[in-house]
Amino acid sequence: MIDLIFGPFLNLLHYVNFRAPMAAVTAGLFGILLGPLFIHTLVRLRMGQPIRGAGIPSLYEKHKGKQGTPTMGGLLILASLLFSLLLWGDLGNRHVWLAILVTTALGAVGAVDDFAKLRGRSHRGLSARQKLAWQGGIGLFTGLWIYFFLGTEHNAELALPFFKHAVIPLGVLYILFAIIVIVGSSNAVNLTDGLDGLAIGCVIATLVPFTILAYLVGRPDFTRYLLIWHVPGAQELAVFGMALLGAGMAFLWYNAHPAQVFMGDTGSLALGGALGVMALCLKQEVLLVLIGGIFVIEALSVILQVASYKLRGGRRIFRMTPLHHHFEQLGWPEARIVIRFWIVATILGMLGLATLKVR
């Protein structure tokens, strides 16, 4: 009788295309329900965000109303993610474990940085050297794991989109490449986190195509048809991706303008690392540049601004960087900037998926 009642449901647990959406729903509901208590706790502990721009009157005037908004909201994202994966994830899968370890480790680095800022009531947390050292160490761990344990013959090769069989054999240099991906992706999302809902909305738009890619890459029938690499077990990253997407939506519930909580470095470093490790595991590293193009643009704006200032005698390209602050200085309302960045992120995600047939 028990088998007749519960048998069909238990059978569903074998299917990724059932567990993945359930992971998103679970993480979303958990985060939304836990949110008020979590935010109240942060307020009670006086975990208020210091506002950037004290030396930039125009920016400070726009953002001074956010002074004291609780930060470290990335803890809510991580809690929702891990709770959902505990219920729906395959915890015997090496890809899932790598994604969990990288995401939580970078979240821990971000939490230390956030706490240092809160304790000093300033924007000075960990030094740039300290933060890069920790990110680089996590990237090294990721590269070693993938190089030796990914479970595919193409561990040390870099695939090029738009071509059927074009690869760049990196050999042991793939480990260095993995470090660059993890450090770059985590910092790029961190730079994007500057307006209410901006970073998390763009992360959600980026997670959708990568979750689809995870399901496709893990299925040998789809990989043969699409002429992309098959990575055994990678379909479980679709569950991870959907759980993170649901957690992100729950956070957006409270981070939408006017934000009740900020993610802080706890969230931005973790989310960037999650995108980076998914791209590495799925062997779709180059597509991360296109699908996550909004983060690349934000990071490039900072690099170009610094280079221009140093090489051109103090002359700037943008009014302020990262790029979203440039549009603020042009007078764009915050909501307009955020929604337009979301739109661009969504378009780039669709373009990334379209490359699967352009080979």
Q: Could you characterize the architecture of this molecule?
A:
- This protein is mainly α.
- The protein has one domain (13-290).
- The protein is built from 15 helices and two strands.
- It has helices at 2-12, 16-44, 57-63, 74-88, 94-120, 128-149, 173-192, 198-217, 220-226, 236-255, 264-281, 285-291, 293-311, 323-329, 334-354, and strands at residues 157-159, 167-169.
- Strands 1-2 form a two-stranded antiparallel ribbon.
- Helix 11 (264-281) crosses helix 12 (285-291).
Q: Into which percentage range does the β-strand content fall?
A: under 5%
Low-confidence regions: none
How many distinct domains?
1
Supply the helix-strand structural class: mainly alpha
Mean pLDDT: 90
How many helices in DSSP terms? 15
Radius of gyration: 20 Å
For the termini, the CA-CA separation is: 52 Å
Number of strands: 2
Largest sheet composition: 2 strands, antiparallel
Strand order of the largest sheet: 1-2
Order of helices and strands: HHHHHHEEHHHHHHHHH
* Rough outline: globular
Q: Helix fraction?
A: 55-70%
